[in-house]
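Before the break, one more example. Copy the sequence into your notebook; we will annotate it together after we see the structure.
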Amino acid sequence: MYTASAGVPMIYDVGLALFLIHIIRSSKHPIHTHLIATLLSQVQLERDGETITRSTVRECVDVLLRLHNPEREGGKNVYLTDFEPEFLRRSGEFYKREAEDMLESGDASLYLKNVSKGLIPERRRG
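Here is what the structure looks like once it is written out:
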């Protein structure tokens, strides 16, 4: 019988750690690279107006949130260390282009409406 006082890790946590080591970060198969690239691709497709299966993206992100790096690597979840930095970088580039396109089109009212909704970050002033 499992007890926390025995100092034995829960089987669920061991399973997640093994999944991370042997599946997601497999040295034989680039699953990690494909997973991150596919998620970023799906986000871009939706931004471009395509229809995606959001539930699948949500479930993949949930897996990344549940997987934790070993303590020697900071112990943060895989979402924070592997996916989020690239997602934020690409999002910044995307919204910068969107803002520039709106400013160039001369539709100031649409630009201001989107800024007020938080869809476009306001530039910081001096």
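The two ends are 63 Å apart (CA to CA). Residues 78-105 form the longest helix (28 residues). Try to locate both features in your own notes.
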